[in-house]
Amino acid sequence: MLRPISLSCAALCLLASAEAAAACPTDVVWPEPAWAEAPLPGGPAVEAFEEYLFTLVGADEERLGIRTDGVVVVHRGRIIYERYGRGFAQRNRHLAWSVSKSVLSAMVGVAVLRGDLTVEDSICDHYPQDGEICDVTVGDLLDWGSGLDWNEGYEDEPYYLSSVIAMLYGVGSVDMAAFVAGHGRAHRPGTMHRYSSGDSVLLSAVLAGALGPGLADSYPWELVFDPIGMESAVFERDQAGTFVGSSSVYATPRDLARFGYLFLRDGCWEGERILPEGWVAASTTPNPSFLAQPSPDWERDRGAVPGRHWWLNAPVPELMHESRWQTAPPDTFAALGHWGQTIFVIPSADLVLVRTADDRETGVFDRERYLELALALAAEDGP
Predict the structure, then answer these.
(1) Nearest-5° angle of CA 114, CA 116, CA 120?
(2) Distance CA 176, CA 166 (A)
(3) I need a surface site. Which of 149, 161, 179, 199 has the fewest CB within 10 A?
(4) 213-272 pLDDT, tens digit each
(5) Pick the CATH number of 2-380 from 3.40.1180.10, 3.90.180.10, 3.40.710.10, 3.40.50.300
(6) Is 231 in a helix, a strand, or coil?
(7) Interatomic CA distance for residues 158 and 160, integer angstroms
(8) Which residues pair with 72 in a beta bridge?
């Protein structure tokens, strides 16, 4: 299948240009210095929400049932609901797992706005390699469309077949980006979406190279965490010094809500633009590699639609795909992580939902039910 040049360029040119930034919203509440709070009174919607989220099944050590560690619901810029379970409290950081990928996407966006790189750049412009993978672009990595031969297998597959287990915990853990770059080619970059934690780690190394040694050790804080007040945030690195952009951000649910709120407000914070004009829109639009050819896994499972390091509820008529979460509006998008970590952003409802969890039991937690209950909860707060 041919690379979708015209569609790709239209999106990439929008992102690469930093001219005349769009106006930031001025009539909204900002969580500075802290979140405003407007707790809901008790009622049927609150009771149903709590009953669903904080009910364990079986002994805790068996890791059964819906194992919620924390929930924060932000409506119209105020926390209207917050609760913790299983020994967690407001101050506790939580591993975000693959929610980290969406955080990395924001860091790339800030670097684009600064002029450090563009999404059309070859990865070899900033992370020198031999010529075999120099046709991969920054945009391809954002699409999970590098074309590298990668197996994103977890606990349900043999460890010896899993590229991601080898990267995080095995032979690739010393220098994760080099391990990823050493994989062979499965298909041409940009011609198929294939979800890959490897693409995200390689993107992190490319970003560090573009920023240079002055920021390579501190860019998560200088580009995103500090500007939006994510004081709890921690970002782990591998032994080579690469931030593990696939899975290693830790933060409190309140600070993860700050990150969701940045995207709810079109990449602005306190009236100032943090992300380039159009970055949020392009991140939350079906990505070019996916539109060129969805991965076989997506075709089989028909999950959420991939944006650029985000997941979308958008219908895709040309693929005969309806919204993944039927109880939520089509404009819903999400950062999703292993074992139940989620940030849902629902612009039409002015809503950010953060949940941290330990959902080890497959298929128990129903995101559609969760979204339905959360929207009912927000409705009690008024339109």
Answers:
(1) 110
(2) 9
(3) 161
(4) 999 999 999 999 999 999 999 999 999 999 999 999 999 999 999 999 999 999 999 999
(5) 3.40.710.10
(6) coil
(7) 5
(8) 82, 354
β-strands 234-235, 68-75: how paired? unpaired
Closest by CA to 309, choosing from 172, 139, 180, is: 139
State residue 23 phi and psi, 5-degree precision: -65, 140
Listed in sequence order, the DSSP H helices in the chain are 5-16, 44-53, 99-114, 138-142, 163-169, 176-181, 197-211, 219, 253-264, 279-283, 288-292, 296-301, 367-379
Of 283, 294, 120, nearest in space to 193 by CA: 294
What is the distance between the terminal CA atoms of the chain, rounded to a whole angstrom?
A: 46
Give the integer Cα–Cα distance in Å for 266 and 262.
7
Of 158 and 41, more confident: 41
Helix 367-379 × helix 44-53 angle, to 10°: 150
The order of strands in the sheet holding 333-337 is: 36-37, 78-84, 68-75, 351-357, 341-346, 333-337, 311-312, 305-306
Between 366 and 42, the higher pLDDT residue: 366
Q: What per-residue confidence (pLDDT) applies to 114?
A: 97
Q: Is the dihedral of CA 314, 320, 325, 326 positive or negative?
A: positive
Q: What contacts 363, CB < 8 A, 6 or more positions away? A: none
Q: What is the mean predicted confidence (pLDDT) over 18-44? A: 84
Residue with tokens 């089989």: 300
Q: Using CA atoms, how far apart are residues 110 and 142, in angstroms rounded to an integer?
A: 14
Confidence of residue 299 (pLDDT cuts 50, 70, 90): confident
Determine contact, residues 146/200, Cβ cutoff 8 Å: no
Instruction: Tell me the pLDDT tens digit for each residue of 109-144.
Output: 999 999 999 999 999 999 998 888 999 999 999 999
Reported pTM? 0.93
Given the structure tokens 């993107």, which residue do they identify? 203
pLDDT for 156 equals 67
